[in-house]
Specification:
The complex is a heterodimer. Chain A contains 4 helices and no strands. By secondary structure, chain A is mainly α. Chain A is elongated, with a radius of gyration of 18 Å. Chain B is mainly alpha-helical. Chain B has 6 helices and no strands.
Chain lengths: ~120, ~130
């Protein structure tokens, strides 16, 4: 083991934890969503719309998308750090990932709370 | 630079074929590939969700789009990506708390992750897509 002095940096512990916690939130949501779909059997538009019109479903789905935003950011950053060597290109791609994910989260809010 | 002298001694041959990996390694690279695939198609999935909830006409249009064999194939791939990522992710959460880290268990749970995600893909694909 490297005997390094841990001072002044996170060493990725926070990202590691965020990735795990968001994974747990999304796993729980997946189970809840599967049960809700199995119960409601939304085969037509009215039933599908009613499923997402429930207050708890909107909030739960929002939690899912916020977790997805954080989780995908950590994962995509890991991938970019591993395979994209030129710093400028990596930074550009990282910014694109952040913008796409933030836009998706905003879009998800719009979808969920649209009248 | 110390890097320059170190680099000279290292062999420049890397076997990047995932098929030569042991089972836990295969689960690992598939976890990464499935995660990237889910990110890359996230915008399309959100578009489908948006359309399906927008109006009865657009809901019908989404249904028609997803009836296309190519769309079904892509969705089946995404379904597998999600399920593999989920199953492998649960395995990693157990590894994080030092459960199943010995080699025989790690190999067995890797095989279980591959089998479970494939079986669930077939089951859910059959139930939802066909």
């Amino acid at each position: 083991m490297v005997n390094r002095i841990v001072v002044g940096a996170h060493y990725g512990v926070r990202d590691w934890l965020v990735q795990r916690l968001s994974a747990v939130v999304m796993t729980v949501y997946t189970v809840v969503f599967a049960i809700a779909v199995a119960g409601a059997r939304p085969v037509d538009y009215a039933a599908w719309k009613a499923l997402f019109a429930q207050g708890w479903m909107r909030v739960a789905t929002l939690l899912f998308f916020v977790s997805l935003l954080l989780h995908a950011w950590v994962g995509m950053r890991d991938i970019l750090m591993d395979y994209i060597r030129p710093t400028g290109l990596r930074l550009t791609l990282e910014v694109i990932v952040i913008l796409v994910l933030t836009a998706c989260a905003g879009w998800a809010v719009q979808i969920l709370w649209r009248a | 630079m110390p890097e320059a002298s170190l680099k000279k001694k290292r062999p420049l041959w890397y076997n990047l074929s995932p098929l030569d990996l042991p089972l836990p390694g295969l689960v690992s690279i598939l976890h990464r590939i499935s995660g990237a695939a889910l990110f890359l198609l996230l915008v399309w999935l959100l578009y489908l969700l948006d359309s399906s909830l927008a109006s009865p006409e657009r809901f019908a249009a989404v249904k028609a789009t997803l009836a296309h064999p190519f769309a079904k194939l892509v969705l089946l791939g995404l379904l597998w990506s999600f399920l593999h990522h989920l199953c492998a992710g649960i395995r990693y959460l157990f590894l994080d708390i030092h459960k199943g880290v010995d080699l025989p268990t790690a190999r067995a749970t890797s095989a279980a992750v591959l089998a479970a995600s494939l079986a669930l893909t077939v089951l859910l694909g059959w139930l939802l897509l066909w």
